[in-house]
Amino acid sequence: MAQFIKLYSDNPSPKQIEKVVDVLQKGGLVIYPTDTVYGLGCDITNTKALEKVAKIKGVKLEKANFSFVCNDLSHLSDYVKQIDTPTYKILKRALPGPYTFVLPGSNSLPKVFKKRKTVGIRVPDNNIARAIVEALGNPIVSTSIHDEDEVLEYTTDPELIYEKWQNIVDVVVDGGYGDNYASTVIDLTTSEPEVIREGKGSLDIL
Q1: Residue 103: which CATH number?
Q2: How many domains does the chain divide into?
Q3: Which of 15, 48, 89, 102 could cross-link 187 (Cys pair, CB 3.0–4.6 Å)?
Q4: What backbone torsions phi and psi does residue 102 show, to the nearest 5 degrees?
């Protein structure tokens, strides 16, 4: 049964963050708050954990559109090809924030993502999510816990999320109520930014 760990976004307890990181390092799956909907994530370097997430979502791992959640832009060079100045300026303006940016993948992507031409990068404006990634030392691969269920509380209320997911994941982080709006997805791999999905993030950053 999953641990239920309460964290406060204005001041996440390092001791509780360590508990979450410990689970991620052992290949566990974690549900955690972001600046949009709650996310289901695992350590980017753990292939077994990545396969578990793909299975839950019912997709093949190499075809899965998971985001890489980073705590700031410093991880970018590990996963993304050299980006030009205009692209970097958009990222600087928008992040941290409720956006997923599609960027050209680099050769140093983890093995399971090697064939990917592009990657989706997130730097959420949520202290809990960023503190977890920072303490882990590398990004979390993440997907939202979208629910076919019409009861939206299941994806926003941490206690209901726990009730539903306690036997599937290893930790549910209670960071308060989540949002129902997904992130805005913007493709920056072509000459002009292309909005793939309009979500919570404003398009004024472009």
Answers
A1: 3.90.870.10
A2: 1
A3: 102
A4: -90, 120
Q: What is the rounded CA–CA span in Å between residue 29 and residue 97?
A: 23
Q: Higher confidence at residue 173 or residue 116?
A: 173
CB-CB contact of 20 with 12 (8 Å) = no
Query: Do the domain assignments include residue 203?
Result: no
- Residue pair 8/158 in contact (Cβ under 8 Å)? The answer is no
Q: Using CA atoms, how far apart are residues 154 and 103, in angstroms rounded to an integer?
A: 31
Q: How far apart are CA 28 and CA 2, in angstroms?
A: 10
User: What's the rounded mean pLDDT across residues 96-104?
Assistant: 97
Instruction: Measure Cα distances from 109 to 3, 48, 60, 106, 117 in Å.
Output: 30, 16, 17, 6, 10
Is 202 among the domain residues? no
Looking at residue 5, the DSSP 8-state letter turns out to be E
pTM score over 0.90: yes
Structure tokens at 151: 């009861």
